[in-house]
Structure formats: C-alpha cells, structure tokens
Design brief:
This protein is mostly helical. The chain is built from 26 helices and 2 strands. The protein has a two-stranded antiparallel sheet with strand order 1-2.
Length: 475
Amino acid sequence: MSEFDSISVEQLIKTAENCLEKNSEAYDPVKAADLLQKGANLGSMASLEKLGDCYFYGTGRDEDNRAAFEAYTKVFEATGNSYSAYQLGRMHTFGWGVESNPDKARDYLEKSWADGYAAAAGILGVICLDRAKLTHDEKDVEEGLKWLQRGSNQGDPYSIFRMALVFSIGDCGIREDKKRAYDLLMKVPDYPRALGYLLISNGLDICSNDQYSELLNRALDLAESTNKGMLFRSLGRVYEGNTRLPADPKKSEEYFMRALDAGDGYSGYILGNNYAYGWNGYQRDVDKAETIYLKGANLGSEEAMSSLGDLYKKRAEVVWPRDPEIMRLSFEWYEKAYKAGGGASDALHAGQAALEAQDPSLEERAAECFKVAMEDDIPWAYVPLAKLSIKEGTPTYCPKLARQALEKARAEETDDYMTGEVDYLIGFMFERGLGLPASANQAVESYIKASDKGCEEAKEALKGFRKGLFGWKRI
C-alpha cells in the first residue's frame, strides 16, 4: 500500500504543492504529478487542473499540450473554472494542443474575464490587435486597446507589457510613444518579459546608464532567485554587444546555457545561430551549433528544430549526389518544426527535403507537408504535391488533390506555370485519365502549351501522338 492511499484529496493536493516548491527540500515534481494524478483518478477537479499545468509546463511530466488541453477541458466542463477557461482560451489562441480558433478562444477568455480572471484581458487584447493587422479596421484596434487597458487597470502584468509593446513600436497604426511604453514597463519591473525587454532595448533609450545598471542588477538577482529561463536568455542577449554593454561572448554563452538548463529552448536557437554564423563576436563552429540546436529542439523550440533542418540540408549538399541519410535528418527536423507550430514554411522545407532524400517511404509524409504548405498558399508546394498525387498505386494517389494544386498554380501563374510544367502535368492527367476524362486531344493541347513555354518533357510526350482523321491519337 502507498503511503498516500489513506490520506484525503485535500492532503494529496497540499503535499503535491509542497513538492512543486523549487526552493523546498521536498521539491520533487515527478512525485507531485503522481499525487495529482491520484487525486484526479479520485474525481478531484482541483487535482486534474493542477495536473493539466504539469503537462502544460512540463513539470513532473513530459510537456504535452494535448494532455493539458484535455485536462483543462474536463475541469471547465465540470466546474466552469475561470483559470481552466483562461488556459483553454490561450491554447485556442496560439494553437497549443489544438487547432487555433480565435472565436473559441474569445468565448473561453470572455467567460474567464467575466468570472474575475484579469489575465484573460491581455490575451483578448492580443486577439483583437492581431485581427486588426488583417482587417485594418480601427474598431479592432480600439477593442484591442480597450481589453489591454482593462487588464492593466486590474494590475495584470501581461496586459501592461503588451500595451507597452504597442506604444514602443507604434503597432497597428498607433503613434509610437517610447516614454509611455517605458513608464508602463516600469510599472512591472519584476515581470520577466518586461524586464527582459527593457534590457535588450537599451531601456528604450530613455533610462540613464545608472538606471540601466539597476535594471541589469535586478535581472541578475531575479534570474538567480527564480531560475527563469527567459531572464537568463535576456541576459545572454545583453552581452551580445547590441546594448549599452560591450560584446562578451563568454558571458553571453554562460547566460544562454543557464537559460537552456532552466528549460528555455529558444535560447538554444539564439546561441546556436551565434555559433552557426559567427554572429555577435562568436567564433563560427557549426558542430557546436548543432549540439546547442539539439538542446533547444529537445526542449520544444520549433525555431531550433527548423535550424537543424537547415543545418543538415546544407551538410547534405556539400557532396553530390546529396547524402540521402543526412537529407532524411533534415526532413525529420523540418517536419518536427512544423508539427510543433513552426508553420507552413517548415512544412514546405520538410516536403522538399523528403523528396531529395529519395526514399519512397517518406512520400506520404512529404505529401502531407506539401498539402499544409499549399493550404497556406505557398506556390512552391503546388507542383510537387500534384506529382505525388498522380502516382498510381501509392498512398499519395489523389487526382482530385492534384487538380486542386495545379489549378492554384495556373490561377496564380507560378514559375512552374510559366515554364510549362503545370500544362505538362495537366496533359499527363488527360492522357492517362487520372482524375480527368481520358482525352488524347486535350492531352496534346496541354502538351503543346507546355512545349511552347519550353518544357522538354512536353516536347518528348508529343512524340507519342499523331494526328488522325478524327483528331489526335497515341502512337
């Protein structure tokens, strides 16, 4: 029998909270998560909510946004809890563990705000301002600022920080006002995002050197006392030489490594770049960059994952023909990057690397990647997707998808359309009856269009037809 079998749920939660105190001798996040799982199994929504946090932040459990999302959903559906509503709103906003859905995000966040959770206002403000960048509608800007002001009035540091950013860079058509931004940031000088931004922006060129030194010392003390990776990352950037302090690669690396040790994967991306490209006073060392990128990627940084894709792609291209094994590595990291939230460009690069690896077993995953890129209107995905989609007898075969991709290429007059490859593929589909009615006449018509644009494959294909009394026929 476990020592915790006979204690109450309330005691389980209290013991778990003690195990999550980093400065406590009882600190044991894995034990805390196990206790919370036991409480959740007993039907405790409070335990389940905290277990959701363990998955969300990677505390005592591997970081798993989907598991966190499911936990918060169960808690919200059972209790209407404002914190779970806030977390669900964030996850729907940024696509963490669920497909991004601003409408659902807003619904959850407004419920959270109505129930008194001030931090919800900051995310609502961001949603409105992001929408304003697409709509260019002043009403969206006004609504975004209104939400940020509401959160600021309640003392929410994220709302204050985001309001400061708007005035710092003159975002969404708002007049730049660095003094106002500085004053807002100084309201929350112990908020890691605000303090970090003040440091790397040179105090917005408003504070004195003495004030900047005070901010630096505050960041050093806060980083040591809280072990916040974001603060160590900011300190690493301070010593890159782009602030009031001279470049000091040794100190810069020390703080970036502290950030990585504290779980900040993005620091692996920044430090890896410094070594990969010899930036900011660092000696170029691609092997060291690889090691550091791997640290960042394993901590969940999609930027570090994408950089590994770049690094392995360049390494594979050093020899000809390209090394298929290294190109496969490139594909795998690009694929991980896009699945971790890196976006359609990573999906495109993953698809391209998969084809260059010349491994038929990767073609289905390549097609998935190209489809993601096509849905984001990236033109370089259209023809590769079409080619994979007309490979008969393979898992990628889908003539309907090929037609969709080629129609987009034709409508947008992509490079592949201008060089005749799109017309050639349409001709091929007519010739073979792949998703289009088999027609020698229409095949030849498309091949002629392609040939006139200089497509050699079309010229070769035309040699297989001759004109008869009733039109074109295959020889």
